[in-house]
């Protein structure tokens, strides 16, 4: 009876075989790709901090005011009534992600996502400063390093939470909250404290598991990538089989090797595992494309450094497509890189047209509560209505409301109003017309609203008694 040894199965890169958490402490690998990521990452951090304080036409470039239901993008404010524009914007963003993934792989995850940028370029460097770099000692602060690290983490999370909230409440409100007593705005204070706690939990504890467990993007990549998408890949044709062959390591090198004596035909991979030690999600890139890979390119810098030490050409691990890694030519023109840009161009064009033709105000007229009509003591017929006008201009405006289409008709109520930018005027009004205007119990009328650069006529059907000429 033969038995087969059970093969180890890895469910998650952050999970040990016994189900406990595998804490990752990746070694940073210096190189050209890390330098590029630092330039991009710190630039994005500076932009993220500065963006809420900038102004375009008196408005921040990006403000998602959920409470007041106002969404500002580069000086243009959209409201819930702009449902089509908001939907087109979301679809365009989604298609853009699909397109860039099809072309450049998970470039967003490794280079632009705030989770990766702040964790790898801010929080982990702080951890290494206080607790040392893996493989280079425990750091200069000894046992106090962990406490000092958490204190700095708290300050960073506090500042990051306030910057994050400024995108939803605006810098003016945020400044008022910071300078005022928490007792004056307890809900805002609790929200700020909760966001700070969430940031501290994320970057101090959950960390890379946000990318591996919580974020669905990695699971979507299988349908967004193809063999021509750029990925971080290991060249198996060049690297396998792994092991040390002769004296390929330069004198004085500190490279730790796995010695293989059974074969003289070895690949360039010397199985030093530096690509694994430097990976922020704990995977082995040599196992192929994996859900956990965020295209951070740290394994490329690590492998290139080893190749330099053993006198072999760089690029054993490189940023390339699967097709080119397999020795085939890359296919640039393929359906998804044509369909996505065409669809994005069409959607953007539609949004531009809608923004150009969008009226500076939105008028809504609905029937009022109660009886559809009443006969006044004077004999006139009155219909209650709900009138609403939302100003969508940059400066607000004055609007007049008049009744047209019937002789002797009028509107009772406030018919000359001043509406501030982004505000909505909503008041009950009453349409009053002579009874002889009705012949069938229904009377089409026109409610006209005029303002500076705005002229809107809305059709409305009044209800009233049936009146016949020469009789009652």
Question: Secondary-structure blueprint of this entry?
Answer:
Blueprint (H helix, E strand, L loop, with lengths): L31 H19 L11 E4 L4 E4 L2 E3 L4 H22 L2 H6 L1 H18 L13 H25 L1 H9 L6 H21 L2 H6 L2 H8 L5 E5 L1 H4 L34 H4 L20 H13 L6 E5 H4 L9 H23 L3 E7 L6 E2 L5 E11 L5 E8 L5 E3 L3 E4 L4 E10 L8 E10 L2 E10 L9
Plain-language structure description:
With 472 residues, the chain is α+β, with helices and mostly antiparallel strands. The chain has 3 domains: 32-223, no CATH class; 227-325, no CATH class; 361-463, Immunoglobulin-like, CATH 2.60.40.10. It is built from 14 helices and 14 strands. The strands form 4 sheets. Strands 6, 7, 8, 10 and 12 form a 5-stranded antiparallel sheet that branches. Strands 11-9-13-14 form a 4-stranded antiparallel sheet, with no helix packed on it. Strand 2 and strand 3 form a beta hairpin. Helix 4 (114-131) runs antiparallel to helix 5 and helix 5 (145-169) crosses helix 6. It is elongated.
What profile does the largest beta sheet have? 5 strands, antiparallel
How many strands in all? Answer: 14
Average pLDDT rating: 87
What would you call the structural class? Answer: alpha+beta
- Head-to-tail CA distance between termini: 108 Å
Rg, Cα atoms, Å:
33 Å
The tally of domains stands at 3
Features:
single chain, 472 residues, alpha+beta, Immunoglobulin-like, five-stranded antiparallel sheet, four-stranded antiparallel sheet, 18% strand, elongated, disordered N terminus
């Amino acid at each position: 009876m033969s038995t087969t040894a059970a093969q180890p199965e890895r469910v998650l890169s952050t999970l040990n075989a016994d189900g406990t958490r595998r804490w990752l402490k990746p070694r940073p690998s210096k190189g050209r790709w890390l330098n590029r990521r630092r330039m991009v990452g710190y630039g994005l951090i500076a932009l993220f901090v500065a963006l809420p304080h900038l102004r375009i036409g008196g408005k921040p470039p990006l403000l998602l005011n959920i409470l007041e239901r106002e969404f500002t993008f580069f000086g243009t404010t959209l409201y819930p009534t702009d449902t089509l524009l908001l939907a087109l914007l979301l679809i365009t963003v989604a298609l853009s992600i699909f397109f860039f993934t099809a072309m450049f792989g998970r470039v967003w995850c490794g280079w632009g996502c705030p989770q990766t940028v702040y964790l790898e370029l801010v929080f982990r460097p702080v951890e290494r400063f206080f607790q040392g770099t893996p493989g280079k000692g425990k750091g200069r602060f000894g046992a106090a390093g962990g406490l000092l690290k958490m204190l700095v983490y708290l300050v960073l999370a506090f500042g990051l939470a306030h910057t994050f909230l400024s995108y939803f409440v605006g810098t003016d409100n945020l400044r008022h909250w910071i300078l005022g007593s928490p007792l004056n705005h307890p809900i805002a204070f609790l929200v700020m404290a909760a966001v700070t706690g969430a940031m501290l939990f994320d970057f101090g504890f959950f960390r890379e598991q946000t990318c591996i467990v919580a974020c669905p993007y990695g699971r979507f990549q299988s349908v967004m990538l193809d063999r021509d998408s750029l990925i971080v890949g290991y060249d198996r044709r060049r690297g396998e089989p792994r092991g040390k062959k002769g004296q390929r390591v330069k004198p004085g090198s500190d490279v730790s090797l796995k010695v293989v004596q059974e074969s003289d035909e070895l690949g360039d991979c010397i199985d030093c595992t530096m690509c694994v030690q430097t990976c922020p999600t704990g995977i082995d890139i040599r196992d192929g494309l994996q859900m956990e890979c965020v295209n951070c390119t740290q394994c490329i810098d690590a492998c290139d450094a080893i190749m330099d030490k053993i006198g072999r050409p760089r690029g054993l691990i490189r940023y390339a497509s699967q097709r080119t890694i397999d020795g085939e030519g890359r296919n640039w023109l393929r359906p998804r890189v044509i369909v996505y840009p065409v669809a994005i161009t069409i959607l953007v064009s539609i949004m531009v047209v809608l923004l150009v033709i969008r009226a500076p105000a939105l008028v809504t007229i609905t029937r009022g509560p109660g009886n559809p009509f009443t006969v006044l003591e004077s004999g006139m017929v009155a219909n209650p209505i709900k009138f609403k006008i939302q100003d969508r201009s940059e400066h607000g405006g004055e609007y007049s409301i008049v009744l047209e289409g019937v002789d002797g008709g009028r509107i009772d109520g406030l018919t000359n109003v001043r509406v501030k930018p982004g505000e909505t005027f909503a008041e009950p009004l009453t349409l009053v017309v002579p009874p002889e205007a009705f012949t069938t119990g229904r009377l089409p009328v026109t409610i006209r609203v005029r303002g500076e650069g705005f002229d809107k006529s809305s059709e409305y059907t009044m209800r009233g008694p049936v009146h016949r000429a020469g009789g009652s």
